[in-house]
């Protein structure tokens, strides 16, 4: 397609994704109070951990401005809508690539969607479970004599970035296997780059996680390294299968 056609395609995929997110955000307003309790649980748990480790520590949750309450509920519902519609926007992302692929390669895209959705949600769940300890570590830097005022809106943006980083990081193996199925990378290439990949995973975990505690960084780095190794094993197996098929075809042709 021409550049203008590509831009129109991107706009269409983006609008479809945004329409799904907006619709789910509106539906999420029905359960806004329950969702607020779920979203605020990490900070409430972090406060409990902080006050247990430092008796007498003062922590308060605040909002600022007349429209802060509306903004708070909107962020909560938007977060729920964005995560719930991950199958839609992941599918739209790959649909942008699908028209340029062959029929066999389109099956790879569908397999990508089938594997990426549970992995993304697993990453989000892991990030959510690690939020309390990460936030508690950050609170420990607060001087004992100073009250820690946490703006709820800022906290929600912080939490959303953390969940997205974990969710996207868990898509690494699916991306590598998909590239292998498309013939872009091989298992041998991944094996040679393993040591570099481990270093890059460590750097990514250190830079991408908003919190500074080593527990959160290791919780991201270790699964990424493990999934890289699993992806390498799968790619090597796929390469052997392709080699066996090509050998059999050559023998039959001879």
Question: How does this model look, in words?
Answer:
There is one protein chain. The protein is mainly alpha-helical and 254 residues long. Helix content is 80%, strand content 3%. The chain has helices at residues 3-28, 32-53, 68-84, 86-97, 103-139, 152-169, 172-181, 187-192, 194-208, 214-253; strands spanning 59-62, 148-151. The protein has a two-stranded parallel sheet. α5 (103-139) packs across α6. It starts with a helix and ends with a helix. The relative contact order is 0.11. The model has no long low-confidence stretch (mean pLDDT 81).
Work out the helix count. Answer: 10
Number of strands: 2
- Portion in strands: under 5%
Poorly predicted spans: none
Strand arrangement, largest sheet? 1-2
Topology as H/E string? HHEHHHEHHHHH
Shape: flat
Cα gyration radius (Å): 22 Å
The largest β sheet comes out as: 2 strands, parallel
């Amino acid at each position: 397609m021409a550049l203008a056609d590509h831009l129109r395609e991107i706009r269409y995929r983006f609008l479809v994704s945004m329409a799904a997110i907006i619709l789910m955000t509106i539906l999420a307003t029905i359960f806004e109070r329950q969702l607020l309790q779920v979203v605020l649980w990490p900070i409430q748990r972090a406060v409990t951990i902080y006050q247990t480790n430092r008796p007498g520590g003062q922590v308060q949750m605040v909002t600022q401005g007349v429209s802060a309450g509306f903004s708070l509920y909107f962020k909560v519902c938007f977060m729920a809508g964005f995560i719930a519609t991950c199958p839609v926007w992941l599918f739209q992302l790959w649909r942008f690539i699908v028209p340029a692929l062959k029929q066999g390669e389109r099956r790879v895209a569908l397999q990508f969607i089938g594997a990426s959705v549970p992995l993304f949600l697993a990453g989000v769940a892991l990030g959510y479970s690690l939020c309390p300890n990460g936030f508690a570590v950050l609170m420990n830097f607060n001087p004992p004599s100073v009250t820690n005022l946490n703006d709820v809106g800022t906290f929600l943006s912080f939490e959303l970035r953390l969940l997205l980083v974990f969710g996207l990081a868990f898509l690494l193996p699916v991306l590598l296997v998909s590239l292998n199925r498309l013939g872009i990378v091989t298992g041998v290439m991944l094996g040679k780059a393993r040591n570099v990949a481990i270093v890059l995973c460590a750097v990514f975990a250190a830079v991408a996680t908003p919190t500074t505690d080593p527990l959160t960084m290791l919780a991201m780095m270790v699964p990424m390294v493990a999934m890289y190794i699993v992806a390498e094993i799968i790619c090597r197996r796929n390469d052997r299968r392709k080699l066996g098929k090509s050998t059999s075809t050559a023998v039959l042709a001879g």
